[in-house]
Specification:
This protein has 207 residues and is α+β, with helices and mostly antiparallel strands. It folds into two domains: 77 residues; 104 residues, no CATH class. It is built from five helices and six strands.
Length: 207
Amino acid sequence: MGCGILFLGPFVIVGLGTLFFSLYAITKGVQAENWIQVPANIEKVDMNSYSRKGSTSYEVAIKYSYVIGAQKYWGNRIGFGYGLSNIEDHDTLFLVLKESKRIMVYVDPDDNKESIVIPGVNDSIIFTLIFSILWNSLLLFLIFLPLIAKSRNRNIENSFILKYRIHALIIIWAIGLFILLNDYFHINIENKINVIERTKNIDSNTE
């Protein structure tokens, strides 16, 4: 039993790490909705990509500046939990930011150095949270399975507990996979960007 738990140690770290990260990002994202809004100049927008084993992940990278009082600040965070992935609609997000010159950003009133373009939650963090729930539910099942199986012959009640946990695990995974595969909670984060001024090229084409 001890060796089994030791073997599962790295997987437990992954499960707890993704759970903590997702809950932290969701909490910060929701808090950011109440931060002060400040006009910001977009200095640079790029599309980064990373390929591995036939799969390519993308990420929109941004650099912007804003002024509070007489102090100038720089920011590069789009959203809490947003990063390299193949989940978000990065192309549309990139297009909106690339066509924008000035946007409103959300700044922490207690720490003006911390800012964000899009508050709230996004697809990346929802995916991480669901992945963490599925991962941890399977780990809990595997950790407690030997204990239940060992004593099931001594107590018939444990057989029902084992069946209950198997059914619960199947339901959790079925719901989680359904949400992930069908983009059930898809969020168009590009629609949350408050554009103040678009680039001159875009403005001239619309005249």
